Recover the amino acids of this structure.
């Protein structure tokens, strides 16, 4: 039997974020995910999960300034210290929320940037995050995103993600295969 989690960043937008947990439970969901919990204290989010009998399935590492269009910082050479601080922050939240997996959004490649440099930074950041998360008992996921919805996003294809996973060689780095995004990039029916 398939299991579905409610993405609270996409669903129940008529409610404030914390009230979306109640809405998800009322709709029959048992698990939730969202872009990130970082606007609220971990104990506040944990209380909403507990109150509604929900499991925290997934959230992302801190992804930069979402309101300004950032969609991850893992490929950005000048943001490595911020990325690493974000890993520690995400672990704190994951432990408080009982979350066993965290996604890393690659980010948008700056125009004119050398993609080899960006890939090397991404690989180094993923290796760092995979190790730190493994020590905390949390899986690290990477998710290719289509360029129609997020123009310039660095990680776009499943084979690109799998090559990175092979390159890094961590047993704690996994592919999050999003059928929506991959159908656009690898099918486009």
């Amino acid at each position: 039997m398939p299991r579905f989690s409610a993405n609270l960043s996409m669903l129940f937008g008529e409610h404030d974020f914390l009230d979306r947990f109640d809405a998800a439970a009322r709709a029959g969901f048992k698990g939730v995910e969202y872009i990130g919990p970082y606007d609220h204290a971990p104990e506040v989010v944990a209380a909403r999960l507990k109150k509604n009998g929900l499991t925290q399935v997934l959230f992302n590492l801190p992804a930069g300034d979402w309101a300004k269009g950032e969609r991850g910082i893992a490929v950005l050479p000048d943001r490595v210290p911020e990325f690493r601080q974000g890993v520690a922050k995400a672990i704190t939240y994951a432990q408080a929320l009982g979350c066993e997996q965290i996604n890393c959004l690659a980010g948008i490649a700056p125009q004119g940037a050398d993609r080899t440099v960006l890939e090397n930074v991404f690989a180094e950041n993923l290796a760092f995050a995979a190790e730190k998360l493994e020590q905390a008992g949390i899986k690290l996921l990477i998710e290719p995103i289509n360029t129609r919805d997020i123009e310039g996003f660095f990680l776009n294809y499943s084979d690109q993600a799998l090559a990175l996973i092979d390159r890094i060689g961590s047993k704690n780095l996994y592919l999050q295969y999003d059928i929506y995004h991959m159908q656009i990039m690898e099918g486009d029916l």
